[in-house]
Amino acid sequence: MRKLATVREISEVKPIKNADRIEVCVVDGWEVVCKVNEFKPGDKVVYIEIDSIVPDCKTFEFLRDRKFRVKTIKLRGQISQGLIIPMDILPPRTYKVGEDVTDILNIKKYDPQEEKERKLIKQNPPKGKVQKWLMRFGWFERYYQNKQEKILQARRFPDWIKKTDEERIQNMKPEFDRFVQEGVEFVATEKIDGCSATYGLKKVNNKFEFVVCSRNVRLNEPDDNCYWNVAKKYDIRAVLESLYYTFGGNYDGGNIVIQGEIVGPGIQGNKYERDTCEFYAFNLIIDGCRTSYFFMSNRLVSKNIPCVPYIDYITLPDSIQKLVEMSKGRSKLANISREGIVCRSDDISFKVINPDFLLKEDTE
Q1: Residue 297: which residues within 8 A CB-CB, separation 6 or more?
Q2: Residue 74 contacts residue 359 (beta carbons within 8 Å)
Q3: What is the SS3 assignment for 86?
Q4: Domain topology for 169-360
Q5: Phi, psi of 51 (to 5 degrees)
Q6: Parallel/antiparallel/unpaired status of strands 348-353 and 44-48
Q7: Distance CA 255, CA 239 (A)
Q8: Contact 188, 341 (CB under 8 A)
């Protein structure tokens, strides 16, 4: 589960040009605008990430107009991402730097895709007069709830596939410093603002099991939604079977997975202005091992499955702020700011979100 609110330490305080009442506080790789002299380097604080929904209470009253959502903003030309709150917001006790306090503060994640997923798996209430009448009896209520639980169980994300959720580089300051020191090279690809989809094939008792998933949920039955429509459009099951026999071997328990982003009508405002749903792969995983971008693109593009656009082969600059600047630019899919970049090297990967995209495109 993502840590939306954590105990952090102020590493630096910087002035803002032509601003007397506000300054920039730095926590790990994040820069947050605060009141002058509110914090100093070394202070222990609570940091709340962007895309958090804070509770409706006096402390966060200033966010009411934003529906209590923490967003990327710009003040006096300075990007500010997240909130820094004094430690006295927490119940009195000793807290360690890095400790997760999300549940303590009752903070939730802003996630439009998760809301759509809930609609896909919502429980069905009893239908008809007979079912409603039978719900008066405990034995039938238990039977009905058990049946609904089995439905939800079948929709749970497969345990043999890792969900897609890249960490933001701002939360990886120690790792970032090590990557810079060691000169680690990364493949940078465009991060696409769509909905995450996973397609997997596993051999069970000498038969193939094909799964279609959103980011968090397995969608069992073929349906008229973007995930199944993409599976049909690109004939993904046939592609997976072909790749399985070529690279995955032929043994029970073997599996192969394609993960990517879907863009198109009804998805994130259709920023890329597509007439139909399109799919762009970012992961090809064979028996639990993620292949390189170039291995993936060489195999999938030949089978008419597009991959996320390649940007460059890079080493990291000497600061996270400079890397954030590198994330800026135009999308290769449309005339808009790109959402950011994803950097990958062997088993290491992280995302760098373009703040210009968040300011211009994220208008909800």
Answers
A1: 307, 310
A2: yes
A3: strand
A4: D-amino Acid Aminotransferase; Chain A, domain 1 (3.30.470)
A5: 70, 25
A6: unpaired
A7: 13
A8: yes
User: How confident is residue 205, by pLDDT bands cut at 50, 70 and 90?
Assistant: confident
The tokens for 184 are 């680690």
pLDDT at 236 over 90: yes
Find tokens 């072909």 and name the residue: 242
5-109 and 169-360: identical CATH topology: no
Cβ-count burial 203-214 (b if 16+ within 10 Å, e if not): beeeeeeebbbb
- Rounded Cα distance, 233 and 94, in Å: 55
CA gap 28, 2 in Å, rounded: 17
Domain locations in the chain as residue ranges: 5-109, 112-154, 169-360
Mean pLDDT, residues 282-306 taken together: 95
CATH number of this structure's domain 5-109: 2.40.50.140
The Cα angle at residue 112 between residues 106 and 113, in degrees rounded to 5: 115
| % of the chain with per-residue pLDDT over 90 | 72
Instruction: Count other Cβ atoms within 10 Å, centred on residue 348.
Output: 12
Q: Is the pLDDT of residue 290 over 90?
A: yes
The angle, 0 to 180 degrees and rounded to 10, between the axes of the packed helices 226-233 and 236-243 is: 60
DSSP string for residues in 278-289: EEEEEEEEETTE
pLDDT digits (tens, 9 = 90+) for 27-58: 999 999 999 999 999 999 999 999 999 999 99
Cα–Cα distance, 317 to 167 (Å, whole number): 18
CA nearest neighbour of 23 among 64, 70, 84: 84
Asked if 263 and 231 touch (Cβ cutoff 8 Å), the reply is: no
b or e along 242-268 (b: 16 or more beta carbons within 10 Å of the residue's beta carbon)?
Answer: ebbeeebeeeeebbbbbbbbbbbeebb
Comparing 231 with 147, the larger pLDDT belongs to 231
Cα(262)–Cα(240) distance, integer angstroms: 18
Q: What is the Cα–Cα distance from 25 to 219, expressed in whole angstroms?
A: 44
Burial class of residue 281 in the structure, from the number of CB atoms within 10 Å of its CB (0-12 exposed, 13-18 middle, 19+ buried): buried
Strand-pair partners of 314: 186
The closest of 279, 350, 358, 272 to 316, measured between CA atoms, is 350
